[in-house]
Amino acid sequence: MSVTHDARIQVRSPAPTAQRPAVRGRPDLNNPAAWIVAVILLIMPLIANGFFLIEIFATTLMLGTIALSLMFLAGYGGMVSLMQLTIAGFAAYMVAVFGVSGNANISLGWPWWLAVPMALTLATVFGTLGGALAVRTEGIYTIMITLAIGAAFYYFTNQNWAIFNGHTGINNVSTPHFWGVDWRADIPFYYVVLAIAALCYFAVDYISRAPFGLALQGVRDNPRRMAALGFNVNAHRVAAYAVASFIAGLAGVLQVWNYRQISPGSVSVGACIDILIIAVVGGITRPVGPYIGALVFVLLRTFALDFLVKIGLDGNRFRLLIGLGFLAIVFWSSDGVIGLWQRWRQSQRPQTDRPGGGRGHG
Amino acid sequence: MDSVAQRLSAVGAGAALELRGVTRLFGALAALTDVTITVRPGERRAVLGSNGAGKTTLFNCITGDFPPTSGTIRFFGEDVTHFPPYERIRRGLRRTYQISALFPGLTVQDNVYLACCGVSRGRFSFLRPGQNDALMHAADGLVQAVHLTAVKDQRVAELAHGQQRQLEIALALAGAPRFVLFDEPAAGLSPTERAELVEILTSLPAHIGYIIIEHDMDVALRVVESVTMMHNGRIFKEGVPEEIQSDPEVQELYLGGGHE
Q1: How many Cα atoms are found within 13 Å in the side-chain-facing hemisphere of A216?
Q2: pLDDT tens by residue, A134-175
Q3: By the 8 A CB rule, do A250 and A155 touch?
Q4: Which of A7, A218, A239 shows the shortest C-beta gap to B149?
Q5: Phi/psi at B93 (5° precision)
């Protein structure tokens, strides 16, 4: 109890609030690695060709943002939702349905600046309603309900021709042109994706220290006590689904602009589970994790095939590599790649009690 | 709060807490049977009884963690029997837990800050607290009040047991508490820590009433003005501390039934 007695001496000192900014400030700003990553991301178009820019880095940022919405729910809220890709896909469909596409009898032909807010609103409502169902359950039942929503949406899009155009989906979705710029050209599109991903990353990072995010972490750790502190736990969880749905919806809009089409294959159950793999491989304790996981996933998906063929194996076994990598990471590090990274950093500098504040958005 | 208080006085109810015929069944087991208690505003009362007497179940019914099977609970005159826990808390009821129910991954300061948010309108805020955030100042004050300023930036998981018990009390004092339920606050504390606990409890503002469950008579009887004795889920005896201490039946129950 000696600490308490020491504390009592300090009760008279008026200074305790003065130290707060150091503790609450964003550690990333003092981290050189985060600055290096940020600069590399910004000058990427000078380094990488169109293929790397879009197929690797933009794709990583889009998948990472969807996985970020899962990280927000699972890491801060303790709710594992398998419907985040479904929400992104829903937003993508809505952009195609309300905007301009090759299917003139389905698309309403709204300009993108009307179709996108509409798609984001509907995707947020869709995800919030799904969340309202899911928050009545815990643990594996949350996973089952959200997976059921994802599977139901997949089969629905396959069979509904009036809005979703069945298994062929909606093609030739138009992308924004304004200020004389084709925003789907490789370099502008890369910067749009980077800006949205950075926005989502910093928003999640910011909210995690605001009352809403702190309370969400409290709900994760001890829902009963949160109720005894005056919090409506279920309302808080549903609000978290709303935030996550909006983030996933943003990524969905980017995806439909990227591929210029959306079809049921993009919202399959396998793709839903890929998002879980990305988040877990990267690590769900911090917002940077999903982006690292997405980079690993995209690199494996893109190059494992060539690699396998080169060493004389069937290229279609690239999923085997992803699966083995997933197993290895989960086996050695329950908090993914960022967990490995943190432990490596700590072993390098044992005297620092707080490991580096992340690597920016990868 | 004022409007609530006015509404209550209009009803003509003077009690802070009024339980009538509260029964709680767990399957066939009656954890509480026909419990009727009235506590005045500002009154400080101990609930004594051996393990399984229904003391913690009584708390759980009052806060709504487990609603009563039958009976009514009024808080400052308002019928809260069917209110969810958070609605009762927002009306000024607070509780601590027998086994510390804290947020081990967050710092001491953030734990208390959360408690302050829970009973304020800012609980859904997406904005981080600024330099002069009122809730953050309130949290600082509470951290000081329970003597934890020196460890306020430490994660709760790293605190000693005694410090966690003090934090438990700080969480229950956030906002404007009108009535607090303390569930064995002295459990596992050293004699020095017990003395500090007594000091914290006796220095609470006079308008804050509480019920304390405590096995340690030295602590319990020094911080209360009335005592309720429970046995097998029923009220067994009520009185002032001296009466209860000298009551032969109570002594037999307490000393004969084992003292944990």
Answers
A1: 30
A2: 988 888 888 899 999 999 999 999 888 888 888 888 887 878
A3: no
A4: A7
A5: -85, 145
